[in-house]
Specification:
The chain has 11 helices and 9 strands. The protein is of the alpha/beta class. Helix 1 links the parallel strand 1 and strand 2. It is globular. The structure holds NADP nicotinamide-adenine-dinucleotide phosphate. NADP nicotinamide-adenine-dinucleotide phosphate binds next to helix 1.
Length: 279
């Protein structure tokens, strides 16, 4: 029985392959990606469900970035897996429904399909990843949002991978959604202070109304509707829906999730600076 890992070259996927060691069978789109990962692999694509190998009793980790065909492809892979897989573990977003905006709504639709599929399931529902924060800082040391003073319990994606590994290597548990957060929920001003400390240069958070933020995003090249919806999503998050933290990571792993400061202490400063817009 294999643990079949899609999205294996991604942020969560690479960490999950590391956690699983030899137990993983990665699905990659190009052979050289599999060679680079250094684990058992097959070449496949979520757009072609039949290319995802699921033998009876296999466990499937279903994850990818979002694209316009995401819902259709993920639903088809779930249908393909439902007859043989012992369990499907997937990555969604905390608190989403089919009616949520942008990618959150896509996840809501896939989650609903998985729950109705008949295959045993686990949905990992994290908030935002710590990995993305530094990349939003521009060369003037600013990052923008519409979160107001709403706190967000950002999580290290490696903690998501560790939870996935635990669930995929234990006997299949009851169907459940796991809401995953970091250990605390800083405001974006507090995150700017952590970034200032980590990057060694001043970083500030600039809060914009949803309308002003949408205009800024549109000016940066985003289509108008997407810019409006993204700014609206940030404002919704700022209303406090990601403000509470959960004990789920600690409950499953027996250790607390990484804090933002611990996260930055583990990233070397050169790659952290490279992740920002500073040239
Ligand atoms: N970023 C956040 O703050 C955040 C918060 C909550 C939830 N999430 C969710 O986390 C998920 C993304 O996880 P991640 O950050 O680990 O991913 P990621 O780093 O963006 O990597 C995406 C992975 O998906 C693969 N992929 C994309 N399209 C594919 C296709 N058609 N067939 C097969 N593989 C495909 C990519 O393969 P290639 O290398 O071949 O491109 C890559 O391995 C998304 O569902 C996102 O909504 C993200």
């Amino acid at each position: 029985m294999a643990i079949v890992v899609t999205g294996a070259t991604g942020t969560i996927g690479r960490a999950l392959i590391g956690e699983l060691g030899g137990a993983a069978r990665a699905v990659v789109r190009r052979p050289e990606q599999g060679e680079e990962l250094g684990c058992d692999y097959v070449v496949g694509d979520l757009e072609r469900p039949e290319s995802i190998p699921i033998e009876p009793g296999d466990r499937l980790f279903l994850n990818s970035s979002l694209w316009p065909g995401f819902v259709r492809a993920h639903q088809a892979v779930i249908d393909h897996a439902a007859t043989n897989a012992a369990q499907v573990v997937t990555v969604s977003v905390r608190g989403v429904t089919s009616g949520s905006l942008l990618g959150f709504g896509m996840h809501g639709q896939v989650d609903a399909h998985l729950k109705a599929s008949g295959v045993p399931w686990a949905i990992l529902a994290p908030v935002g990843f710590m990995q993305n924060l530094a990349g939003d800082v521009d060369d003037e040391g600013r990052f923008f949002g519409s979160y107001g003073r709403g706190p967000v319990g950002y999580i290290d994606a490696r903690d998501i991978a560790a939870v996935a590994a635990a669930l995929l290597t234990r006997p299949v548990g009851a169907d459940a959604t796991y809401e995953l957060t970091g250990p605390s929920a800083p405001t974006h001003d507090e995150i700017a202070a952590e970034l200032t400390r980590a990057l060694g240069r001043a970083v500030s958070y600039v809060d914009l109304s949803a309308d002003d933020n949408a205009a800024r995003l549109e000016k940066g090249g985003m289509p108008a509707q997407a810019a409006h919806d993204l700014a609206e999503l940030m404002a919704q998050i700022g209303d406090g829906r990601w403000a509470s933290t959960t004990t789920t990571v600690a409950d499953i792993l027996g250790r607390r999730p990484r804090s933002l400061r611990e996260f930055y202490s583990l990233v070397d400063s050169a790659s952290l600076r490279a992740a920002t817009a500073v040239s």
